[in-house]
Amino acid sequence: MKLNENYKNVEESYLFSLVATKVSQYTKQHPEADIIRLGIGDVTLPLPQPAVNAFLEGAAQQGKSESFHGYGPEQGYLFLREAVRDYYESFGVHIDTEDIFISDGAKSDVGNILDLFDKDNTVLIPDPVYPVYRDTNVMAGRDIRYLNANMENGFLPLPDPSQKADIIYICSPNNPTGAAYSREQLKAWVSYAKEQEAIILYDAAYEAFIQDPDLPRSIFEIEGADTCAIEFCSLSKTAGFTGTRCGYTVVPHTLEREGMSLRKMWLRRQTTKFNGVSYPVQKAAAAVFTPEGLKACREHIAVYRENTRIMAETLKRLGIWFVGGKNSPYIWLKCPFGMQSWEFFDFLLEKANIVGTPGSGFGKNGEGFFRLTGFGKNEDTQKAMDRLQNLL
Fold first, then answer.
1. Can you tell me the distance from the alpha carbon of 144 to that of 167, in angstroms, rounded to the nearest whole number?
2. Phi, psi at 6, each rounded to 5°
3. Which listed residue, of 117, 171, 172, 335, carries a Cα 20 to 30 Å from 149's Cα?
4. Rounded to the nearest 10 degrees, what angle do helices 279-288 and 49-61 cross at?
5. DSSP, residue by residue, 220-256
6. Distance CA 353, CA 165 (A)
């Protein structure tokens, strides 16, 4: 019997677990400290009321014989898949209902989709990057090549024609940097993927935060993307489902490689390894896409946008370089005084009782940078920025 030795190449502690451990240790030593958490990207507002009402209705239906639901379709109930389809139509993207798969969140599917690919594929990942992209491929033993995202390119690297790639990860708006690709930039990526016969794994988890009409909310706004891309999205940030767990993945029926349909492969994988999302959760998710649900979601997102506005204005006054914020819940800033990422983390925690996320945890190009999130309460964000301004 042998174990998967690739796990030796994965850092023992997940980035956010390490942050939580350091904060826990500090609070034990300083129980009186008023800690403001602007680190992990968890929401703070409750579920929108239309989703709550539908959740309760779905749970009540499970308590009656005539409306009870047992195993549901692994790809999701039709009522939710049609709601997702209509949501895409609202910003001009046509998606076939059969290409939509309901999941328990984008994070799961981003990792699970790798079941479809040979381990010898070359993977192209931006640096810095959301750790799940990197770690899941390290666990599988794949060859990873990194794209240099930096201040010079606004943390939005473009393809290098000389670089070979089979699998390409793109997250826009980006986690951790908050930067978002323009339509022309995504066209360049789609052209590159088609030339390479590669597949783009496109994480659109933060599309609901896009305000600029010139920024695509889906990779499928780009012509030809349906033959070279898979898109992942989640209700975690759109509707506060971080603790409720629901997302969706779009695998176009037009996406084929080596004579095989990736949609059919994904369906086969899901029917084998996944039993679907619970009926009450899917009822709640469908309510998110109603006019009332979308209105409530927009109101919550407006709170988080106000937080990033407060952060951005403070950083501008302090003369600190940053990117993100406007079309994303994240702000990516250059650590002041030439500090390293974890050095600035400790400095903020000890001197101002503010928790952020060290950029170095997202890759070597993240060293010297720091991520703040807009998912706190308005009053806490304002208090944190007042502390930061007084400190710096």
1. 10
2. -65, -20
3. 117
4. 150
5. GGSTTGGGTEEEEEEHHHHS-GGGT--EEEE--TT-E
6. 43
Residues contacting 377, CB < 8 A, separation 6+ = 44
Give me the amino acid identity at 56: L
Binned at pLDDT 50, 70 and 90, residue 41 comes out as confident
Q: What is the chain's length?
A: 392
Q: How far apart are CA 209 and CA 236, in angstroms?
A: 12
State residue 221's pLDDT score: 98
- What per-residue confidence (pLDDT) applies to 11? 83
CA dist list (Å): 334 to 315, 322, 339: 10, 6, 9
Sign of the Cα torsion 139, 142, 148, 154 reads negative
The pLDDT value recorded for residue 16 is 81
Q: How far is residue 132's CA from residue 142's CA, in Å, rounded to a whole number?
A: 14
Segment 172-194, tens digit of pLDDT: 999 999 999 999 999 999 999 99
Instruction: Round to whole Å and give the CA distance between 215 and 272.
Output: 37
Distances (CA, A) of 123 to 162, 215, 218, 359: 14, 25, 21, 22
- C-alpha distances in angstroms, 280 versus 44, 67, 74, 109, 244? 22, 12, 15, 20, 10
Given the DSSP bridges, would you call strands 167-171 and 199-203 parallel, antiparallel or unpaired?
Answer: parallel
- For residue 252, name the pLDDT band (cuts at 50, 70, 90): very high
- 169 close to 124: Cβ distance less than 8 angstroms: yes
Q: What pTM was computed for the model? A: 0.96
Tell me if 158 sits within 8 A of 312, measured CB to CB.
no
Which residue is associated with the tokens 């473009």?
Answer: 158
d(CA 103, CA 101) in angstroms, rounded, equals 6
Q: Is residue 355 over pLDDT 90?
A: yes
Element (H, E) at 126: strand 122-127
Q: In the structure, how many helices (H) and strands (E) does the chain have?
A: 12, 15
Query: What are the tens digits of pLDDT across the range 71-95?
Result: 999 999 999 999 999 999 999 999 9
